[in-house]
Amino acid sequence: MNSASASVTSFSRDHQHSRFVLGVIFAIVMLLISLSAGTTNAFASTKNLEPFMGGKVSSAQFASYQGCSCHSTLQNQWASSMHAQSLKDPFYKLQTKQVEQTAGKDVVEFCDTCHAPAAVMAGGVKTAEKNDALNGITCTVCHQVTAQHAKNPGNASLAYPKGGPDGVLHAQIMDPKAAHQASGNKLYDTSEYCGACHDVTHPANGLKLETTYSEWKKSDYAKQGVTCQKCHMAATTALSAPTEDQAAMGGPTRKNIYAMTFIGANVAQSDKQLATALLKKAAEVKIDAKTDIVPAGKEGAITVKVTNTGAGHSIPTGLTEVRNMWLSISTIDENGSKTEVGRTEFGTKLTNAKGKDVGAQFWLGAKKKSDVRIKPGETFEQEVKIKMPTSAQEQTLVAELKYQSAKDEVIAPSGVKNPTTVMAASSTALYASEAAKSAAAKQGKSQSSANIDKSKQSTNDENGGVISAMVVSAIILVTVIVVLVIIKTRQDKRN
Fold this sequence. Notes:
The strands form six sheets. The chain has a five-stranded antiparallel sheet. The chain has helices spanning 3-39, 72-79, 90-103, 105-115, 117-121, 139-143, 191-195, 212-217, 220-223, 228-232, 272-282, 408-411, 434-443, 447-450, 452-459, 464-494; strands spanning 147-148, 158-159, 169-171, 182-184, 199-201, 208-211, 243-246, 253-257, 283-289, 299-308, 324-332, 338-351, 367-372, 379-387, 394-404, 421-431. The chain folds into three domains: 1-39 and 460-495; 46-257, no CATH class; 272-459, Immunoglobulins (Immunoglobulin-like). By secondary structure, it is of the alpha+beta class. The relative contact order is 0.11.
């Protein structure tokens, strides 16, 4: 082989190697991106509500969300939100099936009025099965609203132009340079806009089923002008909106951009990072122990305080017959064994007209039996008696406020995973004597406090997915390095 042909062969081989390496790197990058993306809810007929919604219209009056690609960032945020899943959510499908079996189709249609407004206005979910109206609460469902219809928002009290949506898209500002028909509407800056669906009243008996907006209206947040959008339409874990960004590709940078995340407390089916951050910002747990000395075999009185520090509504909120939030108070002994000694469940319970508990079937409710929740800025207190075991020198008291989107037994049939999030926690060490306390101080850390780490794995499950992703990413990076080394070695041998 002459030098020229050898040179060509070498070039060809090197070119193949380069293409191979680039292909591997591209595949790895795409995989990492996908991993990153994965880590980063007897009624009157809805016919009575149709005037609020503009009457029956063609579903074609609601353009597809796919046509909003110029707003790709906002479009992607919406796609991960519960608004996008409002009709497709397996848990919602499960509940509407139960509703139809126990209360009839009219009740389901009442629920659909908020969960699938375009489909309802087009004649119902069943007749709109093959069009974009089934994509839940889409861009054009929200941005063609012109007014809040009722004096007190609720039960889908949004209004469209007479005859239905007219193609004019509304937002909180006027943009004369928009590529489509646009109009400024200050309604979009108000909590009343959100309250149109986030207050739900039983249309047959007037029972308040969901009062998120009303809770906010009575709070200091309303008095201070802190709207729903401020927390629930934020783009970062800083949870502050609006932000400075572009609403559309090539558009001007503005200081009033709200994210289309509509983030709530649904860790399982929305942006996990934002939902977790929102939950952890909502409350604070403190332990008030008059003394940290509890003699062996004796009891000490401990007060646990839970304060709603960051939610502009009660916690929990929404359909609180379904939600699952509880305060768990436990002791951890010197061996790391954890025992629950106190528990309080938060939420509401309903009965039917005859006084029978309806459980999670809130649509059958007629009266409120109980309401154990924490209003904005308020503190809940629970006192527990802690006994020091006869043979123990110390133990640790742990108080945790935990949350699930729904109770396990309620959500399990839907197949939706139901993670538990620790919203807030606090711990304190208790000693059998001053001598035991002094001995622990000399060690720099009490043995029982050290044993808290042994129990964290069962109570801190929101970190598991992040850790797994980091491990996978590390393995992938190592694999890339190994592949590149092998390729380089083979190349050197051939040369």
